[in-house]
Amino acid sequence: MNCRNLMHKMDEGDTSLLIRLEVALHLFFCSRCAARIALLEAAEDLMRTGFFPEDSALEKSLEDAVMGRIAAEYGDQPFEEPDIPAEISLRRWVVSGFVLLLSLATVIFGLDFDRVAASYGSSYLLPVGITIGVVITGYGAMFIGSHLKELAERFGLR
Question: For 5-18, what is each residue's pLDDT tens digit?
């Protein structure tokens, strides 16, 4: 049994006698896997006993325990969404978006583009197309993310 098979068997949780003997034999000879298993067992023991207070460790699920810790830390204060105004106005975002789109769409009319595209062919046009798509998608995501509240109010989505 090699190291990869050992971890796969450990993940499956197969408890047959033959598998347990193979795992024990491998762990006896492979110190690296034995150290990894020891760390995993220590982490499992920590999660079971020392991570949460004694009273909630057995009674609550993991979700309830985490949410209880959060509630105890913040008290009964309702979560208030910060009202952060956008740094750049909506008009400037749209105008700069059109300028960006126009400059990316007209890149094929550049002075060196014909020479490079002719020598490399479609293996050059594919990365150019991917780059244009990524830039436009990223710009759109930043625009929507920074003006989500304003866009939701404008289009009545709230």
Answer: 777 776 676 667 77
Instruction: Give the separation between CA 31 and CA 16, rounded to whole angstroms.
Output: 23
E strand or H helix that includes residue 73: helix 62-74
User: Where is 96: in which H helix or E strand?
Assistant: helix 90-105
Residue 90: half-sphere exposure toward Cβ, Cα within 13 Å: 9
- Alpha-carbon torsion 7, 12, 15, 18, what sign? negative
Given phi > 0 = left and psi -120 to 50 = alpha, else beta, which region is 92? alpha
What pLDDT is attached to residue 137? Answer: 92
Alpha carbon distances (Å) from 75 to 53, 67, 68, 70, 108: 18, 11, 10, 8, 59
In angstroms, the CA 46 to CA 158 distance is 44
- How far, in Å, CA of 62 to CA of 103, rounded? 52
